[in-house]
Write a structure and sequence with these properties.
Blueprint lengths: L1 E9 L5 H13 L5 E9 L6 H11 L3 E6 L5 H11 L4 E4 L11 H10 L4 E6 L7 H17 L8 E8 H8 L8 H8 L3 E6 L13 H15 L2 H31 L6 H34 L6 E4 L3
Helix pairs in contact: 5-8, 9-10
The protein binds uridine-5'-diphosphate and magnesium ion (MG).
The site of magnesium ion has 5 residues, from loops.
């Protein structure tokens, strides 16, 4: 009998969890000859999420939970879930029903009958999302796909259905700064993509503010590309070239026309611009250095406070 683990990262999801559980079990009940494990990862919620999970556990022994000591972020929750999952197949789902459980059957079929190793999902629309957010998301995918050697699929969700083999490969990547979409693309394998229209969250609110998303985007870029470093070197080179041309022009002007360069305003502008670019480049180097710093410390990715997994 096949066992499927469903990992659900939860942060302040007391309102959506009961709805999610009901909808999920409606679909999982129609599976034959399969066993399920529902692995809820409580990522340091401040509301009653943990109590709600424990209530579900009372009537359903398939419910497993891991509760963190504080909020470690969705990436940490995903990692913990993958690490503790025991199924032959594993899938990741948001607690807000934005990842439709109705796709589970199709995903399972693709992996067991069609020779795929994993099934990914992508949203074709971003309906219901603020326009600015969609715009920046589009920009992000354009930039990261130019810079990184791996392909990041635009609109890809974390809703992925994987064989054990794929899970083990993702777990073998032990890095601290985790960008799951990149890690998934890094491990490769034979992936089928399923598309669906964006669904609005059933209850509660999104946990991603604009700035949180921005810093997540930066994380993705620094984790999978070193192009910004090359870019800052190139800009430096370009500026050397420009200044060399200017030096020659000024020398010739002074010697031939006897006309000493006048005007400090232009000088001030140049100083501002060049020092701005220097600081910008330093910032880029700093980004990579800070990531290295965190990697070197080897801090745990998450800390468990409570769990029913023995
Ligand atoms: N989440 C989490 N830790 C966090 C933020 C979010 O575990 O720090 C979970 C959240 O409970 C949800 C999923 O990650 O199950 C996706 O979050 P959300 O729906 O807020 O993101 P969006 O769909 O708006 O991108
Ligand atoms: Mg959501």
């Amino acid at each position: 009998m096949d066992k499927i683990s469903i990992i659900v990262p939860c942060y302040n999801e007391e309102k959506s969890l009961p709805l999610f559980y009901e909808e999920l079990t409606k679909h999982t009940n129609s599976f034959e000859n399969t066993e399920f494990e529902f692995l809820f990862v409580n990522d340091g919620s401040r509301d009653n999420t943990l109590t709600v999970i424990k209530d579900l556990l009372k009537n359903d022994s398939r419910v497993k939970y891991i509760s963190f000591s504080r909020n470690f972020g969705k990436e940490a929750a995903i990692y913990a879930g993958l690490e503790k999952s025991t199924g032959d197949f594993v899938t990741l789902m948001d607690a807000d029903l934005q990842d439709p459980p109705s796709l589970l059957k199709e995903m399972y079929k693709s992996v067991t009958e069609e020779n795929y190793d994993a099934v990914g999902t992508r949203r074709t629309t971003r309906k219901g999302e603020p326009i600015i957010r969609s715009f920046f998301a589009k920009m992000f995918y354009k930039i990261i796909n130019k810079m990184a050697k791996l392909e990041m699929v635009d609109g890809a969700r974390d809703y992925i259905f994987m064989k054990r083999m794929v899970v083990d490969s993702i777990l073998s990547l032990k890095e601290y700064n985790r960008y799951s979409k990149g890690l998934f693309s890094f491990v490769g394998f034979n992936v089928k993509w399923i598309e669906y229209e964006n669904v609005k969250r059933v209850a509660g609110e999104t946990k991603w503010s604009f700035w949180k998303l921005m810093s997540y985007a930066l994380e993705g870029i620094t984790a999978f590309s070193t192009t910004p470093l090359i870019l800052s070197s190139l800009i430096g080179l370009l500026f050397c070239l420009v200044s060399f041309i200017f030096i020659v022009i000024i020398i010739i002007k002074t010697l031939v026309l006897g006309d000493p360069t006048s005007g400090w305003p232009s000088l001030v502008c140049i100083i501002f611009m060049v020092s701005g670019i220097q600081l910008f480049s330093l910032g880029i180097i700093g980004q990579y250095l800070s990531k290295t710093y965190l990697e070197v410390k080897k801090r745990p990715i998450y800390i468990v406070k409570d769990t029913n997994i023995v």
